[in-house]
Amino acid sequence: MNPELCTMTRYAIVDIETTGSHAKGHGITEIAAIITDGTEELERWQTLVDPGLPIPLPITQLTGITNNMVEAAPSFEAIADELEEFLSGCIFVAHNVGFDYAFIRGHYETMGRVWRSPKMCTVRMARKLLPGHTSYSLGRICEDLGIDNDARHRAMGDCAATVELFHLMMKSERASDVVAGMLKRGDRESWLPQHVPTSDFEALPTAPGVYRFLNQKGTPIYIGMSHNVRHRVRTHFNGTMKSARRQAFLRDIYHIDAESTGSVLMARLIEDELIRTHWPIHNRAQKSIPIRTAIVSYTDQRGFKRLHLQRQRHVKHAIRWFRREEDAREWLHTQAVLHGLQPELLGLGSDGRGQPIANDQCDTHNKAMNALICAAQTSETWAIVDRGRTAEERAIVWMENEHVKGWCFTEATVSRFDEIPKLVELKNGSATADAIVQHAIHERELGKIRFDIIEPAT
Questions:
Q1: pTM beyond cutoff 0.85
Q2: Residues paired with 311 in a beta bridge
């Protein structure tokens, strides 16, 4: 270990006990901190804390801290100044630092105060300097290394054991480089979830693609997409860890993998397919089926066939559907002119200028309406040809009646539609996938994105 780093740096090894597993809605019951220069202990500080709420029985059974013990203890607000002064000028160090740091930072935020500190995690440090252990929990690694802890799950007992572990690691020849790397401003060690190797993040593409957060068993727990995968993944780890859901989310991530897709359109389609294959526990919004504007037909009391706009999640009984209501209305206005129909009978309302349609015009009207419906329901097949994952590759999306029939990546030259069915892999499709393509078509019309469309020869 570099002697200069030892003498110039003060580390505050911290351990806390709490009423629950996440900062939001739970309180601190005990805090212990030991200042060290990396080789020798310099100061100790500890206190019980009144959490302001009852301690659950399982927590008492685990820690031995009872409601009676904290009844006369100071609140966090009462010790906040003293704690901040004790920790000032130190690097905040803890075993699974995100947990302790989030609780203390969250308690200061509740008081309306901002507290920040550079931090290091002894779990990550141990993985680098003490490889090969089956578990890096404090209890297991201390047992492996022969570090005694007679007060397990009490703040000072765990804190003192962490100090001994920290001192042992600081004796390593590589400790100086490891510590310097972990303290480097913006270094990935400071914000990546504790189990995720930095090599996973470094391998992420900076182009459009999909990414997966995997648990210890390799099961996807979250799937996402982005224009820039690496940047998007980084944003997942910004901010604090107050909520139980966020803490569980970060704690469960062991690996990150990703694949480039060439274009945002393909990233969205593949993301949807992967989510509906794996149904990751932390994906919520993507699981919902989008609401579309459907155009449905019905016959009124006079026997006139009419059209009606309605918002629904399915496309059952719809003669056409659109992602946006304005697109549906524009299509209906075009059909009214094309087939000589009154806009009011197409669900567009009355402008007050048209004459009410007479009963004897029912047959003529219905014949025109049938022609409209027949034309709307005629099978339309076409394909999108978009960028691929390499300069030589292209992505193809096969559409039929506004539904995604399948897609593929290919290096084959495609110039005619009849070549596409031989290349494309058929998909089950989904309402979300259909809406994704409609959105892409709309963006293409606005000039925001570019891709080619191939239609069957007529």
A1: no
A2: 293
> What is the residue whose two structure tokens read 């995100």?
98
DSSP secondary structure letters along 252-321: H--EEEEEE-SSHHHHHHHHHHHHHHH--TT--GGGSPPPEEEEEEEE-TTS-EEEEEEEES--TTEEEE
DSSP 428: -
Q: pLDDT tens digits for 284-307?
A: 765 556 677 888 889 988 899 998
Locate the domains of the chain by residue range: 3-185, 198-286, 292-376, 381-454
Q: Are 397 and 425 within 8 A, CB to CB?
A: no
| Catalytic residue from among 153, 167, 236, 365 | 153
- Among the CATH numbers 3.40.1440.10, 1.10.510.10, 2.40.10.10, 3.30.70.330, which is that of 198-286? 3.40.1440.10
270-282 confidence digits (pLDDT tens): 999 999 999 999 8
The Cα 382–Cα 453 span in angstroms is 7
Asked whether the beta carbons of 159 and 32 are under 8 A apart, the reply is: yes
Which residue is listed with tokens 């059909």?
335
Q: Where are the alpha helices (DSSP H) in 138-217?
A: 138-145, 155-170, 175-183, 198-202
Give CA–CA dist 268/279, Å, rounded.
15
Alpha-carbon span 70 to 56, nearest angstrom: 13
SS3 252: helix
Distance from C-alpha of 239 to C-alpha of 24, rounded to nearest angstrom: 14
Q: What is the CATH number that goes with domain 3-185?
A: 3.30.420.10
Helix H or strand E encompassing 5: helix 3-8
| Residue indicated by tokens 């995968």 | 229
Look up 153 and say whether it is catalytic. Answer: yes
DSSP state of 210: E
